[in-house]
Amino acid sequence: MSSQLNLSLEDRVALRRTFAIISHPDAGKTTLTEKLLLFGGAIQQAGAVKAKGEARRATSDWMKVEQERGISVSSSVMTYDYEGVTFNLLDTPGHGDFSEDTYRTLTAVDSAVMVLDAAKGIEAQTFKLFEVCRLRDMPITTFVNKLDREGRDPFDIIDEVEQKLAIDVTPASWPIGMGRSFKGVYDLINDKLILVENHAKGRIPLEGAACEGIDDPKLDELLGDEDAATLREQVEMVRELCPAFDKEAYLSGTLTPVYFGSAINNFGVRELLNGVSSNAPAPKTQTTKDRQVLPNEKKVTGFVFKIQANMDPKHRDRIAFVRLCSGHFKKGHKLLHVRSGKTMAVHNPTLFLAQDREIAEDAWPGDIIGIPNHGQLRIGDTLTEGEALRFTGIPSFAPELLQTVRPEDPLKAKHLGKALQQIAEEGAARVIKRNIGSDWIVGVVGPLQFEILADRVRTEFNVAARFEPSPLNTARWVESDDAGELKKFLDKNKSDLGEDHAGAPVFLVRNGWHLNKAQDDYPKLRFLKTKEQLD
Ligand code: G4P
């Protein structure tokens, strides 16, 4: 980035924030993203991030997903600068069906912003995503949105966050009124009053409403006696009831600072951005099978966390999204693809700048680069400058929904197999080839994915295929440290087994009893729900 031209690797790392926004649909993630990009000068006008309002409401769920796929390459990573700091904002798919994709995206960020609707508090999807972040001890900053509407009592909201998520909460700002009577917030970190001003274009933050602390008599002038008294009382309560902001606790994921605001009015967004800028962690040390990789190491390392098929069906190439973990990457760099042992020269890496894509000249730890390829790169793969490292922590989930797929024309079985293999390598679905018979089983995490799969097989690969409900209940990868036991199980259960796209054995489970029995009969075997994507 231009403002960082002469900086060392260490400085660049210190000045990077790679994060994601998590929220339940409709809480305001898109609106907030847009405002953050506006601050960074990465986009010029609101409405640029995605089609909104009527246009969006008119579309069916399925089309919405299609649209998301359509824009996801360009907007799934947004890089922008703000006051000398480079932010990489990774988009997480809004639809609940894509939790697996979301999960993997969260493996590539160092912190998250959780957006809540002030009227709704913690919703189902917020809870799920939070749990994923917690598994990774990820620092979380909370933004309570839509204060310009009547919502719930702010004490109620922070209490809910604390109770439902079992996390310490410390308000970083405190709202003054709500809905029509929303006047602004009191910045508890800098002891500053920030008022909204009704403006022709909406309600915007009023600059210069300075007052010296909560006891300043100016507060009464600015807010009126009644509101000033209420604010003082509430601030006193907050300071008594909630722990003070503790950066260590935030960084270890046990405390979340809470900002109140209204994304659509650009209110509270600057404070949030400043909070992320000064408190959120820089790119962190990453774990591999053998050792820790520090971001300041000179040699380049990175891992693939997402594969995106090219939206143009005529081009079969795909983009692998690589999170850089260490070193200074330069265009044309030769990197070792550890899984295959082959070296690949990265001549046309893509850097993502809001909606535009550019060829990346160089990139730094925490940055995401897109590498076009023809299928060599898979989710979980590690790239290095020669060391045979393997980053860990990028899991694959056993699908909970299964369907059988067969070609309409039996002569097209091979084509269908190829199409499914490619889709599996992208991580869009699990594909299992049954050991006996010629059927494939496809497994997904959310039902909408079946429709997308069927559509892609038909349009991208030109194969007419039938997707049918499967009597299977679930699937489990089978592993064991005892090769003899594993072989015995595989030999005895041929008709209940298949292989995934990487050739790993998968147990096709008919019902809960079936799985329990297998576990009881073969105690030395592991029946895995998730699997590290290393092989
Ligand atoms: P999402 O990405 O989390 O799904 O949410 P998105 O930003 O699309 O926002 C969902 C709806 O909430 C949008 O309304 C948006 O305008 C509105 N919204 C976002 N922030 C605020 C806020 O601070 N205050 C209020 N009052 N509303 C907010 P919509 O009707 O679906 O779209 P539109 O017609 O307003 O564009």
Describe, in plain words, how this protein is organized in 3D.
- With 535 residues, the protein is of the alpha+beta class.
- The two termini are 35 Å apart.
- The model is unreliable at 50-66 and 68-74 (pLDDT under 50).
- It has 3 domains: 2-279, P-loop containing nucleotide triphosphate hydrolases (Rossmann fold, 3-Layer(aba) Sandwich), CATH 3.40.50.300; 286-384, Rossmann fold (3-Layer(aba) Sandwich); 398-532, Alpha-Beta Plaits (2-Layer Sandwich), CATH 3.30.70.
- It contains 15 helices and 33 strands.
- The strands form 7 sheets. An 8-stranded antiparallel sheet has the order 18-17-23-14-15-22-19-20. An 8-stranded antiparallel sheet has the order 28-25-27-26-30-31-29-32.
- The longest helix is centred in the middle third of the chain and has 17 residues, at 225-241.
- The site of guanosine-5',3'-tetraphosphate has 19 residues, from helix 2.
